[in-house]
Specification:
The protein is of the alpha+beta class. It is built from 6 helices and 6 strands; from the N terminus they run αβββαββααβαα. The longest helix has 19 residues.
């Protein structure tokens, strides 16, 4: 019956290929989610060595849970991930595991952060999650271009202390 369902899905949606539909012993599935989460107090902590360490930690934890990272970007104050989570694992279970374990691993590697964060809580409590559905291509491009958009917004909000036209001070 499950293979009949996959065949029916393929007939109704020509865009699907068997590479996108994953399978386990008794089920076929495609559970893709766009997830966004941020450091506590939205501090701009994710840069340089910490950014590469966070990337390695998140990849390792996803591999342990057999979660496929399809696209990911670490911005200075938040992380975007497009992931495929197996159906036996709920999104909230996965996020609890990912944020909890990664927080401990980050504090083990960067002990100086404990002075800013105190009780070993690196990530804020909440997160954003959205199902991908048929918008996978659009979400991938959004995640890839997120850093450029953040940089553009930061440049627009910079206060200029010297007027570029007169050379005088701006108040």
């Amino acid at each position: 019956m499950v293979s009949g369902l996959a065949t029916a899905l393929q007939k109704t949606n020509r865009r699907l290929s068997m590479g996108e539909i994953k399978s386990s012993s008794h089920s076929k599935w495609r559970c893709e989610y766009h997830i966004v989460f941020a450091p506590k107090y939205r501090r701009k902590e994710i840069y340089g060595k910490l950014k590469t360490d966070i990337g390695q930690i998140l990849r390792k934890l996803c591999q342990e849970k057999k979660v496929e990272i399809m696209e990911a970007t670490a911005c200075p104050d938040h992380v975007h991930m497009l992931v495929s989570i197996p159906p036996h694992l709920s999104v909230s279970q996965f996020m609890g595991y990912l944020k909890g374990k990664s927080s401990l691993m980050i504090f083990d590697r960067h002990a100086n952060l404990k002075y800013k964060y105190g009780s070993r809580h690196f990530w804020c409590r909440g997160y954003f999650v959205d199902t991908v559905g048929r918008n996978e291509r659009a979400i991938k491009s959004y995640i890839q271009n997120q850093l450029e958009e953040d940089y553009t917004k930061d440049q627009m909000t910079l206060k200029e202390y010297v007027d570029p036209f007169t050379g005088g001070k701006n108040m």
